[in-house]
Specification:
The protein has 77 residues and is mostly helical. Helices cover 47% and strands 8% of the residues. The longest helix has 15 residues. It starts with a strand and ends in a 6-residue tail after the last strand.
């Protein structure tokens, strides 16, 4: 399963959360605040986000390293 994001919408949502992208923002230094912001963004794009395991949520929040595409780990590896 993978999720493809509309890049313009994704960027628009990220801009609403300076704690994610603004290094001068005080909240940027607080891991939990950034994680909460990433979760809010993920909920907009992934319907079942709240039902996912914590590991999958973390992987999803880190999906930007993969160009905005999140692929669930395959169980047959």
């Amino acid at each position: 399963m993978s999720y493809c994001l509309d890049v313009e919408t994704f960027i628009s949502e990220i801009k609403k959360h300076p704690e994610i992208w603004d290094l001068t923002c005080e909240d940027n230094r607080h891991k939990m605040r950034k994680q909460r912001a990433w979760s809010e963004v993920a909920r907009l794009f992934i319907e079942e986000f709240d039902g996912m395991s914590e590991v999958d949520k973390t992987d999803t929040e880190n999906c930007t390293a993969n160009g905005g595409i999140y692929e669930t780990p395959s169980s047959d590896t």
